[in-house]
Amino acid sequence: MHITSPAFKKNAHRALNDAGLQKALKHARPMFTGNRARAVANLPEFEQLRDIGRDIKNHTLANLDWYLETYAANVERAGGHVHWCSTADEARAKVLEICRSVGARTVTKGKSMISEELGINEHLAKHGITPVETDLGEYILQIRDEGPSHIIAPAFHLNLEDWEKTFRAVHTDLPADRVFGDRRDILAEARTRLREKFLAADVGITGANFLIAETGSSVIVTNEGNGDLTQTLPRIHIALASIEKVVPTLEDATSLLRLLARSATGQDFSVYTTFSTGARRAADLDGPEQYHVVLIDNGRSNMMGTDFQEMLRCIRCAACMNHCPVYGATGGHAYGWVYPGPMGSVLTPTLIGVEKAGHLPNASTFCGKCESVCPVKIPLPKMMRHWREREFERHLSPASVRGGLKVWSWFAKRPAAYRLATRAMIAALGLLGRKKGAFRSLPMAGGWTEGRDLPVPEGGTFMARYAATQRGKRP
Predict the structure, then answer these.
(1) Quick one: which of 32, 167, 335, 380 could link to 340 by a disulfide (CB 3.0–4.6 Å)?
(2) What is the distance, to the nearest Å, from the Cα of residue 184 to the centroid of all Cα atoms in its chain?
(3) Which domains does the chain carry?
(4) Per-residue pLDDT reduced to its tens digit, 305-333
């Protein structure tokens, strides 16, 4: 996907005026938040489980080198192969090398955000290998030539009519009377087209929700079963995973799985939870002849020991973006790269640089909802604030913002002047807007009034009202 994070403001403006997108967001977002709320209410120990999940990830990160080495040793012991890749270039080259080793012409893929980060599809196609997305959402996006707008529901931004229009444009043999009334019709059409792809593929590529050090297993969760077909039918299975996906034991993985589905879709468990350990053994009825794990760093190790290490706890459930008012208004494509929403606002500047992604940590109301619903309690607002600080320190923020902050800081350090200035400003605004009720434009407030009116202040300042309340008087 082409990186457009520097154009977040333009992207967001376009998204806010996209009627189809706004319709999709209005329909889909409440479904995710409502399902999660019900799932959490039905599990009394959910808050305790969040603490357990946080502690598992913290312990693993504190001993990451040991658990990665243990995991790799157990993969090799089970007959698999582990490939350590520091950069995206190394990972792409390794995947291509494995595919070429068996003369692969077609590769089926299960949904994998790390493959989006690496640009695996484009790289394979460039070298004459056809990648076929098998996840329903990724499949429609591939034929539309679009990137995912959500990390678990990649076609979050599409409506039913978008699916039907795309299928009719690409599947030219569809009868005119074929009806697409609901998701089952769409799923049936995609399955019909994909079945032959599954059978013809030489290599299957999946992501990994977790890597288990104790057994050398990779774990994927899906609701469509495409992940199982992708990793069992082809001759080679390649699991792509970033280094922070490792967890110590099967028990730890199970605890995190209890958090994952409830936080993501509101299910107790996803329909398919699949553990892969090595290649097919003599007594196995199916499975790949070769099992490869491509372990990717791509900037993660640089986060260790920094203010952003806690971001590596993320289990990619998307609860933060499902509850984010900014994501809910703009959708995922506005963020301009692979990872949208609050988690993307922290992770993306780490991976591509705050110079390109500085708008993202600023695209937050700091309402704190993302942290309150995160299953592993990642302090996302705190880390977005750290990125804002770094942007300011490097003189990357606009001069008007820097100047405004300097003026504000001068007053904030002088309480008497601050109180005097706020009283004067409220009085002036009240006088100017006495007959208007709200301002449609104001000098130095265009960023606010461009999209909404500014109500005329009523009464005194907050500090005056607070002081009066403390004295027991009516403000």
Answers:
(1) 335
(2) 26
(3) 43-298 (3.40.50.10420), 404-470 (no CATH)
(4) 999 999 999 999 999 999 999 999 999 99
